[in-house]
């Protein structure tokens, strides 16, 4: 088929493109992986759902959904969301925005009416990539501003609809995609979804495995009970768009049809937007949550991406790339004193851990480590000096714990430890181990 303007996607004109071997993509979510047992049940003959026209396709046990845009309002026709819900549809993704200017004029009304009718609702952005990474941030901000509160009951994770390259090759297109997703997660505190097809991801994204932490909305119109091979290293799909030509009671035009993997309980979990990722993690953090104490103020976006929440005795940071990690005590104070996630350390990639050195603690970050000991205090180690230190055994080596941050010396940089020093030579790039001294 040819890549032509498809209802439910872009509302702007397209030019003719090269022929594709498979239908174009749609969007996806974070959900339970499909197991062999699940697929065994799912491959049974699909029963007809009242009000929804179907051919051979996915299991009737999977929650049914549609995704729409202004195309589903021909000549301004309204959608009867009560009829849609009565036809067995339990969720909808609505196009909210495209590029950094366009907003679907039907989005807010459809969102409110579908929610009132009992559907779980999500929003998607039709991407218009370009060479400037700034456009990814601009489009993400435009999207977030248009969709309304993302942390709301019945609201599915926001989604990126990726169907065009903007003339970019795989690496710059991946960078653009990353910038968009990180901006959305930083603004909303939720894990966004990625909509794509097998062809687009393998051909235009070079089948990168970089985005597997984001749930997949897989566009694959194959008239089968399960989708084809999942690209990009994803272990499974969260949402499967299995048709672009469905008919559903209450919608005046053809519509994209989707299923969610793989139970109503999973749908309810995904649509619980009332808590951020930090709040979900904190609720199950047990003794760590008790040690952190009560929250101070509200959750905010973190410098360098992601979100953070301060507590009486520490901090929690989150991003899709790193997950949620808790810092407390002298290590959290040191981290904030260095500039937090705005500093060279970046975001934490571990909680506070027990160090090998007796009585010591440590925490790992994207750009270095912080160590603490009762006699040494808290100090950072990073770069080539950190690599050498860890190679020697870290805090369990003869050097012991650090007693300084890294500092400048003639011709290079140095860190001091309980029983020695490590010095980096700017001329050679080498790190040498020295005895205790200045």
UniProtKB/TrEMBL annotation:
Family annotation (CDD domains): GH25_muramidase
PROSITE patterns documented for this protein: GLYCOSYL_HYDROL_F25_2 (PS51904)
Top-level taxonomic group: Bacteria
The keyword Hydrolase appears for this protein: yes
Keywords: Glycosidase, Hydrolase
InterPro entries: GH, Glyco_hydro_25, Glyco_hydro_fam25_subgr, LGFP
Single GO MF annotation: hydrolase activity
SMART domains noted in UniProt: Glyco_25
Pfam families hit by this protein: Glyco_hydro_25, LGFP
Family: Belongs to the glycosyl hydrolase 25 family.
Listed name of the protein: Glycoside hydrolase
């Amino acid at each position: 088929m040819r890549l032509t303007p498809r209802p439910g996607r872009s509302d702007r004109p397209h030019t003719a493109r090269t022929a594709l071997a498979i239908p174009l993509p749609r969007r996806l979510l974070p959900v339970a992986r499909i197991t062999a047992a699940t697929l065994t049940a799912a491959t049974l003959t699909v029963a007809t759902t009242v009000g929804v026209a179907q051919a051979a396709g996915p299991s009737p046990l999977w929650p049914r959904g549609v995704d729409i845009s202004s195309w589903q309002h021909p000549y301004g026709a309204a959608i009867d969301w009560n009829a849609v819900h009565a036809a067995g549809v339990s969720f909808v993704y609505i196009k909210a925005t495209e590029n950094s200017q366009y907003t679907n004029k039907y989005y807010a009304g459809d969102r409110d009416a579908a929610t009132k009718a009992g559907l779980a609702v999500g929003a998607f952005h039709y991407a218009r990539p370009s060479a400037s990474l700034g456009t990814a941030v601009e489009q993400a901000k435009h999207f977030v501003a248009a969709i309304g509160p993302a942390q709301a009951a019945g609201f599915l994770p926001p989604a990126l609809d990726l169907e065009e390259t903007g003339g970019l090759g795989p690496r710059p297109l991946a960078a653009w995609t990353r910038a968009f997703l990180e901006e959305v997660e930083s603004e909303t505190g939720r894990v966004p979804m990625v909509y794509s097809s097998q062809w687009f991801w393998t051909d235009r994204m070079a089948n990168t495995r970089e985005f597997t932490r984001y749930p997949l909305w897989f566009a694959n119109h194959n008239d089968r009970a399960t989708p084809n091979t999942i690209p990009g290293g994803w272990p499974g799909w969260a949402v499967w768009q299995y048709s672009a030509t469905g008919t559903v009671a209450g919608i005046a035009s053809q519509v994209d049809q989707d299923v969610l993997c793989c139970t109503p309980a999973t749908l309810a979990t995904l649509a619980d937007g009332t808590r951020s990722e930090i709040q979900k993690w904190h609720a199950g953090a047990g003794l760590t949550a008790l040690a952190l104490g009560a929250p101070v103020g509200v959750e905010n976006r973190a410098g360098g991406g992601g979100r953070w929440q301060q507590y009486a005795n520490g901090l929690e940071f989150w991003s899709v790339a790193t997950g949620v990690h808790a810092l407390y005590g002298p290590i959290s104070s040191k981290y904030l004193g260095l500039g937090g996630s705005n500093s060279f350390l970046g975001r934490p990639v571990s909680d506070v851990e027990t160090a090998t050195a007796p009585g010591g603690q440590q925490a790992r970050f994207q750009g270095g480590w912080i160590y603490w000991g009762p006699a040494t205090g808290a100090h950072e180690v990073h770069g080539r000096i950190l690599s050498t230190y860890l190679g020697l055994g870290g805090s369990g080596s003869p050097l012991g714990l650090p007693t300084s941050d890294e500092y400048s010396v003639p011709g290079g940089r140095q860190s001091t430890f309980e029983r020695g020093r490590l010095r980096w030579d700017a001329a050679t790039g080498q790190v040498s181990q020295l005895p205790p001294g200045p």
